Amino acid sequence: MSKKKKKLLSVIIIFGLFITSWIFADTVSNSYQGNSVTQIYLDKFEEPIYSTLYYIVNYYYDKDNVDYDKIVDSTIEGMMRGLDDPFAWYLDSAQTEESNIDIEGRYGGVGLTIRYDYEMDAVIIVSPMNGTPAQRAGLMPNDYILSVDGTPTSELGLNKSASLMRGEPGTEVTLEIYRDTWTEPKNITLIREIIETKTVKFDTIEYKNKKLGYILLTNFAKTSSQEMKEALNNLSNQNIEGLIIDLRNNPGGLLQSAVEITSMFLKSGEVVSIKYFDGTKETIPTIPGNYYSFLQNIPVVLLVNEGSASASEILTGALKDNSVATVIGETTYGKAAVQNTFSLSTGGEIWLPIAHYFTPSGSDIHLKGIKPDIEVSNPEREVISMTEISEEEATQAFYTTTEKPVLNIEEDLQLKTALDFLTGGN
């Protein structure tokens, strides 16, 4: 593998791996027993798949070293790719674990954001999270994790290293750490705790003699609705004169969470309509009692970009179509597929699109996105190094477990445009 491709695979783990847009409803039954149509397809697949496995087991020259779990994962992944649908996925057991953390917003672990450094062939720490065992132990950005409980991270890779560091609260894990200023690595033993990530971060901004509210929503997890209530309860007592909801790079999440949060900003009406695989249709209205009345007296801005997807687009579409908010930024991702998850015996799961959604005006945004009312792009930043952790990256990771957003108005043209819009500036 080329060095360039290896660098592209340096994916950051914060509390999940997925930057692709996703949204799904409640998991439905996997049962296919007694379905004659399904049996036809099973018969079609049985012979070639079993024959291929037979040839591998009996004729492959390296048959004694075959990883059959990997073959199963690859086979299922290939089936999903065969659908030629960008939103039909297979997640193996490790990826499923990461996905569940995204959804739950909490896990047992030590509180580290990590990525893999392919040049050093080891896991590198982006930052410990605030208030976690890793922070209290003095771990720092750019520290290397050489092994987890004695197993080298060069053998484990990123996903398995992250998985080994997680576990039951109260249990121990030993990390072999190397820092540039040390003459030799040190073993540091940490006791796992419950790590709770925050999907909603909020603050007030004083700008041109006005006090404005700012809410960053990173994804739509199980905890997001309650966190949004806490943010709005706080800001409702701050006498703010405008509100910015930042959905940039928000990949989506739970449909129910999207409906609950949209209902806080939209007093009545339709949130989204859905057409299911069997042709049935459903219109989902706002949830009575969720609306925050103080919002009707202040202007609201939504910040979006091409990373705003799925559930983010449900919120954006509902507020835009109902003239509740002004949308600023870039055209959104364009994902109107509702996925359902189906668990498999591998420990993994398939994510299968089962429905298509439409905004309240009936717009089909799939693969097209939502165009902002005011279009503005942030200048692209030059990536100086894929190895060295930047101060901004480390700071963002540090505040993963807190309600505090990290803002840089001078370098964030989209945010500055939103602030100028709310204050009547040019």
From TrEMBL:
Kindly name one Pfam family recorded for this protein.
Peptidase_S41
Q: Name one GO biological process term.
A: proteolysis
Q: Which protein family is it in?
A: Belongs to the peptidase S41A family.
Query: Span of the secretion signal?
Result: none
Q: Does the keyword Hydrolase apply?
A: yes
* Superkingdom of source: Bacteria
Q: Which InterPro entries does the UniProt record give?
A: ClpP/crotonase-like_dom_sf, PDZ, PDZ_6, PDZ_sf, Peptidase_S41A, Tail-specific_protease
Q: What species does this protein belong to?
A: Petrotoga olearia DSM 13574
What PANTHER family does the record tag this protein with? CARBOXY-TERMINAL PROCESSING PROTEASE CTPA, TAIL-SPECIFIC PROTEASE
Q: What protein does this entry describe? A: Peptidase S41
- Supply the NCBIfam families for this chain: prc (TIGR00225)
**GO MF, one example:** endopeptidase activity
Ranges for domain PDZ: 100-166
Q: Name one GO cellular component term.
A: outer membrane-bounded periplasmic space
Write out the entry's keywords from A to Z. Answer: Hydrolase, Protease, Serine protease
